Amino acid sequence: MYIELLILIQIEDSPKHGYEIKKEIQKDLGYLTDVNNNMLYPALRKFTEEGLVTKRINEQSGGPTQYIYEITENGKRRITELVNAFTERDARHHSEFLIRVSLFRYISQDKRLRILNMRMKDLEQLLLNLEERLEQPNIDYYRDQVLKVSISKLKTEMSWINKLIETVGREEE
Fold first, then answer.
1. What is the pLDDT of residues 112-165, one digit of tens each?
2. How many CB atoms lie within 10 A of CB 116?
3. Does residue 7 contact residue 47 with C-beta atoms inside 8 Å?
4. Do 79 and 21 touch, CB atoms closer than 8 A?
């Protein structure tokens, strides 16, 4: 679902053709996700059919015809809906969560806190599970090391989320 959101965000920033959209997503969030043409162009067709974007032809001398996509008011509303549509299942996915945080400017303070608390709840449960596994007898050295680094990463993310919660709590609506 976040791929659709990322595509719409790029078009909202400024009208773009498909290749530009793909490149901008890769520049912004390439370490989190990959957008290929089999994802991008069907989504753009769907958005055009649903009235979320408009498409116009950009004739180029000596080059292929480009289609420039521009966001509509319905598209802007859809961005807000997609950012807010964060479930417990989404909270388990690191990329889904990070992308939502990167788009917090689109949602209210209470929705930001909801997303952060959902992720924290998921991480707390995961931490408990990993700590229990670490205490199992006859654990080999390498599994022990993987569990320890995983626990360390979880604790770091939890600390970061607590700082975000504090920041959001201080924000004025």
1. 999 999 999 999 999 999 999 999 988 899 999 999 999 999 999 999 999 999
2. 23
3. yes
4. no
C-alpha–C-alpha distance, residues 39 and 4, integer Å: 9
DSSP state of 16: E
Rg of the chain on CA atoms, in Å: 20
Beta strand spans in the chain (E): 16-17, 53-58, 66-71
Please report, rounded to a whole number, the percentage of residues in the chain having pLDDT higher than 70.
96
Helix axes 2-13, 73-84, angle to 10 degrees: 140
Q: Would you tell me how many other CB atoms lie within 10 Å of the CB of residue 70?
A: 14
Contacts of 38 (CB under 8 A, 6+ apart): none
Alpha-carbon distance of 71 to 51, in angstroms, equals 9
Which residue do the tokens 């975000």 mark? 164
How far is residue 20's CA from residue 10's CA, in Å, rounded to a whole number? 9
Q: Check: CB of residue 58 under 8 Å from CB of residue 17.
A: yes
Edge to edge, the sheet with strand 53-58 lists: 16-17, 66-71, 53-58
